Amino acid sequence: MRVGFEIDEGGLARVTLRRPEAGNAIDLETARGLREAARACAREPVRAVLLTGEGRSFCVGGDLREFATLSGEALEKHLIAVTDALHDALRGFAAIDAPLVAAVQGAAAGAGIGLAVAADVTLAADDASFTAAYTGIGYSPDAGVSWFLPRVVGPKRALDLLLTNRRVPATEAAEIGLVSRVVAADSLTVEAERTADALRRGPTAAFGATRRLVAAGLTGDLGPHLDAEARSIAALAASDTGREGVAAFLGKRAPDFTRVPPRP
Fold it and tell me: pLDDT, tens digit, for every residue of 227-264?
């Protein structure tokens, strides 16, 4: 199995890329595994998702060795199958309420950058590096890279990274907004687990609404967006999530949002 998937009893889903010998390169089987993991997260009462990669690298992008075995129309059809599955996975993770945390070590290239920037919270080990890589082999971006990257680093920086394929070390990645923060390599796993667990214990419905509002706000007009904010906060205030949050605040106690089951 090239993508590991498990949900613990607290609702934390762990999605693990398991091709360390290939730098967790994404072949068709891996892309389909990610899609199945996203679908499982949509079916189950998941409260947070932690995405990791085994071995020295997080994900070096598409599996070029697999792609090189094909040519012409067969290669085109294969790439469509790979990207369809991978893009379905990205859509699936974006659609659920549960926030997504990514822990990046070593190399993140091509589609690996797409997986990293698609996360709501992206932690990078201090030995991590990011390289777009696509145009270096005569390809154009996939995995949402041409959509996410301009939004997190700006269009000018995005084009610099996409056209020059320069290597971006973890510290610069944090400075330009490509990752949330940098941690020591030997602390990455612990910090990623801690972050994901804290989100698991949070207000899942409010997280989902916030994710959708932020995404919509990047492309929507102010007026309709303010209306959407009003509807969202009103619905949450009347929900079990909002009632628990306010009751805890007024009672001077920590809220227990785990009492409120997430939407499957």
Answer: 999 999 999 999 999 999 999 999 999 999 999 988 76
CATH architecture of 204-259: Orthogonal Bundle (1.10)
Residue 121 tokens read as 């919270």
Fold type of domain 3-200: 2-enoyl-CoA Hydratase; Chain A, domain 1 (3.90.226)
For the chain, which residues make up each domain, given as ranges? 3-200, 204-259
What residues are annotated to the active site? 87, 142
Per-residue pLDDT reduced to its tens digit, 167-223 = 999 999 999 999 999 999 999 999 999 999 999 999 999 999 999 999 999 989 999
